[in-house]
Design a protein that fits this description.
- By secondary structure, the protein is of the alpha+beta class.
- The chain is 21% helix and 33% strand.
- A hairpin with a 4-residue loop joins strand 21 and strand 22.
- The protein starts with a helix and ends with a strand.
C-alpha cells in the first residue's frame, strides 16, 4: 500500500508541475552547488516556455522541452554563500530558493558502512561537534522497478551539527569536514546508501545488459501484483514466527536455569543450531557510593533481537543483530545489595551469540565500571523452527539506481566515494566486472565522462560473513577498478574489527579517502597509496618481489607469528612462507631447495590485521595473488 501511495503522490506532483515551476528536492534550501563554470540547474514547467535563471547577479535563458523539463549550465563562483537562486517563466511564474551555497559536492554511495551514521560511532568520537560548512543530503530508501524517478520521493538537506549530525553518514561527514577545512568552502554530501544492498541494485538496466538473469529478476519485481503478493506472504510468515514465540513463551512452564559464560557463542555452550527464545540473567552488586548515579549498560552486539531489563525495568531493545547495545540506566533503577539484568533474546537461525571482545558492563558517569563478563544463567523459553528468510526488495537489481541514483544525475558533482562489496560475497568472481561496469554506467548517465571514483576497499572482518576467501576476491576486484582512469582505491585492512561487520573508525577511513581525493581530484602531489608490486623474479632462494613504496623509502613488514605471505607448489595447496625484506625488495623463501613455486599470495584472508606490508607513511599494500610464469 505504501508503494502504491507513493506512485499516486508522484502522479499528483506531475500534474502540479503543469501549474507552477517545480524544482528538484536536491536543489532546495540548504543545498550546495558545485563551484565552477558549468553547474547544471534544472526543473519542470509547462512545455515550450522560456525560463530565466538568476544566480550571483547573472542571468541565464533556457526553455522547457516537450516534456516540460528545462536545464541550463551556470557559473558558480566560490563565495561560500548563502545565495539566492531565482527561476522565472515568461508567463509570470517564479520560484526563489534561499540559503544556497557554493563549494564542492560529493556523492557518498554504497551499503551499510557508508550509511552508518555518526550516532553509531559516537562512542569512539564523543567530542565531535560537527561543522556548519558540511551539508548533508540524505536520500531515504526508495526502490523503484518501473521508470527511473526524476525526483526523490523523500530527501532533504541538513547541516552537520546538533541532532542532524547524529543522522549524517559518518564517513561522508568526516571526509567533507577535511575537504571543507582544506579548501575553505562548503561541502555538500549526497548520501545515497542502504545497508545490505549488492552492487547490481545500484546499476541501471542498461548497465546490466550482460546479465540476463539479473534483469529477469528485476522484471519479476517490476510486476506490482507479484511484488504485493510476495511481500504480503513474507509478512505473514514473519508475523506467524513471532506469534508462535509469544504464545509458547506465555504458556510454557518455567524451566531450569543453566550456567552460561558471557560473552560467547551459543554453539559452544550447549545451544548448537538453536532457534527460538532464550532468557539470560545475571545478578550483581552495586557499591553504595554509586547508588543514584546514572549509568550506561553496554552489551556489545547480540544475535539477534533483544529486550533488556534491569531490576525488572525496561532499559532498551534492538530489533536486529548489528547495532551495539548501549542502553541508559537511570540512577533510580539501581538498588542497594543485589541487582539483576535480564535479557530476552530471540535467535532467528541457529547463530545465537553474545559477541566477544566488546565493551560489556555497566558504565557510570564518574568513570567506574561494573564488569559483567563471566558467569550468567540462561533458560530456554521456546525452541522453534528457524525464522523465515527475509527478502528485501531494495536489494534487487536496478531498484536503488532507479529510485535513488537517477534523480541525482543532473547534479554537477566533484566525485563519488563508493563503499560497498560485502553483499556481493556470494558471487565474488562477478564483482570486478560489475564494479567497472557500474562506474562506466554512472559516468555515462551523469554526463561526466571523467567523474572521479574513490573506492573504499573492504577492511578486515571475520564475523557475519561467508568466509572462504570471498572477501579476498572482492578486495582484488576493487583494486583492479583502478585500471579505469580517474579511479582510486584506498586499502583499509588495519581499520577493520575482526568481530564487527561495521568497524567504528570511519574517521581514519575518511582521512585515507581525503588523501586520495587530494591527489586524484585536486591534482596535488602527495603520498596516499601503499607499496605497489611492480615486478617478480625467480631466484635461488625463491622469488623476489619488487615494490614501488610510493614514499621513496624502504618497505616495512610488521612482525607477526602468523605470516601473510603464502606459496603454492605443485600440489596446488598454499603454505605459509618465510620472507625477508631488503630495501624495496621482498624475498619469498622456498621451503625446500628444489621446490618449484607456482603462485604467491599476500593477505589472502578474511581478517588479515597483523604482519601487514606497508611504507613509512603507514599506507598498506593491497592483497594480491601472483601466478608464476613458466
Amino acid at each position: 500500500m505504501l508503494y502504491q501511495r507513493m506512485h499516486v503522490k508522484c502522479a499528483k506532483e506531475m500534474v502540479k508541475m503543469q501549474k507552477s515551476i517545480q524544482m528538484p528536492q536536491i536543489l532546495q534550501k540548504g543545498c550546495v552547488l558545485q563551484r565552477g563554470n558549468a553547474t547544471r540547474i534544472w526543473g519542470w514547467y509547462k512545455k515550450g516556455i522560456k525560463i530565466e535563471i538568476s544566480f550571483q547577479n547573472k542571468q541565464y535563458m533556457t526553455e522547457t522541452d516537450e516534456n516540460g523539463m528545462f536545464e541550463a549550465l551556470i557559473a558558480c563562483k566560490s563565495g561560500r554563500g548563502p545565495f539566492t537562486l531565482e527561476v522565472r517563466s515568461e508567463d509570470g511564474q517564479e520560484v526563489e530558493i534561499s540559503e544556497v551555497y557554493v563549494g564542492d559536492v560529493f556523492v557518498c554511495a554504497g551499503q551499510s558502512n557508508m550509511e552508518l551514521p555518526i550516532s553509531r560511532v559516537r562512542q569512539m568520537f564523543p567530542e565531535e561537534k560537527g561543522l556548519l560548512d558540511v551539508h548533508h543530503y540524505k536520500v531515504e530508501e526508495a526502490p523503484e522497478f518501473g521508470k527511473a524517478l526524476k525526483n526523490h520521493r523523500k530527501a532533504k538537506w541538513s547541516v552537520c551539527v546538533g541532532a542532524d549530525l547524529e543522522e549524517s553518514t559518518a564517513l561522508g561527514y568526516f571526509f567533507g569536514k577535511l575537504i571543507s577545512q582544506r579548501e575553505g568552502v562548503p561541502v555538500g554530501i549526497i548520501n545515497i546508501s542502504k545497508g545490505g544492498t549488492p552492487i547490481e541494485a545500484w546499476t541501471s538496466p542498461k548497465g546490466l545488459k550482460d546479465y540476463p538473469e539479473l534483469l529477469a529478476m528485476k522484471e519479476r519485481f517490476a510486476d506490482e501484483n507479484f511484488r504485493k503478493s510476495f511481500l504480503e506472504e513474507q509478512d505473514k510468515r514473519e508475523d506467524a514466527w513471532h506469534e508462535n514465540l509469544r504464545k509458547k513463551e506465555k504458556y510454557e512452564k518455567e524451566k531450569n536455569w543453566k550456567k552460561f559464560f558471557m560473552p560467547g557463542e551459543f554453539s559452544e555452550q550447549g545451544l548448537q543450531r538453536f532457534s527460538g527464545l532464550v532468557y539470560l540473567k545475571k545478578k550483581f552488586s552495586v557499591p553504595e557510593y554509586l547508588l543514584g548515579q546514572n549509568a550506561v549498560l553496554k552489551l556489545g552486539t547480540l544475535t539477534d533481537s533483544d529486550e533488556t531489563y534491569v531490576n525488572g525495568v525496561f532499559v532498551g531493545e534492538t530489533g536486529y543483530c548489528f547495532p551495539p547495545r548501549i542502553y541508559p540506566v537511570n540512577g533510580g533503577v539501581l538498588k542497594p545489595g543485589e541487582n539483576e539484568i535480564l535479557i530476552r533474546l530471540e535467535c532467528r537461525d541457529g547463530k545465537g551469540r553474545i559477541t566477544p571482545d566488546k565493551p560489556f558492563g555497566l558504565y557510570f558517569q564518574t568513570g567506574e565500571v561494573i564488569e559483567l563478563k563471566g558467569r550468567w544463567e540462561y533458560q530456554v523459553r521456546v525452541v522453534s523452527e528457524p525464522a523465515p528468510s527475509l527478502v528485501f526488495i531494495s536489494r534487487k537489481p536496478t531498484c536503488m539506481y532507479q529510485g535513488m541514483v537517477a534523480p541525482c544525475l543532473n547534479m554537477t558533482v566533484k566525485g563519488v566515494i563508493w563503499y560497498q562489496g560485502e553483499s556481493n560475497e556470494r558471487n565474488p568472481e562477478q564483482y570486478e566486472k560489475l564494479l567497472k561496469g557500474m562506474i562506466c554506467d554512472w559516468r555515462e548517465h551523469w554526463r561526466q565522462k571523467t567523474l572521479p571514483f574513490i573506492i573504499v576497499q573492504l577492511p578486515a572482518c571475520a564475523m557475519d560473513m561467508q568466509g572462504g576467501g570471498a572477501w579476498s576476491v572482492i578486495r582484488i576486484a576493487q583494486w583492479r577498478a583502478a585500471q579505469l582512469p580517474d579511479v582510486g582505491v584506498t586499502v583499509n585492512l588495519d581499520l577493520g574489527e575482526y568481530n564487527d561487520l561495521h568497524p567504528l573508525n570511519k574517521k581514519e577511513v575518511a582521512y585515507r579517502v581525503y588523501l586520495a581525493a587530494r591527489s586524484l581530484i585536486y591534482g596535488e602531489q602527495n603520498v596516499w597509496e601503499g607499496p605497489e608490486l611492480t615486478g617478480v623474479q625467480k631466484s635461488k632462494e625463491g622469488v623476489e618481489l619488487y615494490f614501488d613504496t610510493k614514499d621513496g623509502q624502504t618497505l616495512l613488514l610488521e612482525e607477526s607469528k602468523d605470516g601473510l605471505f603464502e606459496i603454492c607448489g605443485a600440489d596446488g595447496e598454499f603454505y605459509t612462507a618465510q620472507v625477508e625484506v631488503k630495501a624495496n625488495k621482498l624475498i619469498v623463501i622456498k621451503r625446500e631447495k628444489d621446490e618449484e613455486i607456482y603462485a604467491i599470495r599476500y593477505a589472502w584472508a578474511d581478517a588479515p590485521q597483523r604482519g601487514l606490508l606497508k611504507n613509512h607513511q603507514g599506507f598498506l599494500t593491497t592483497p594480491f595473488c601472483v601466478q608464476m610464469k613458466e
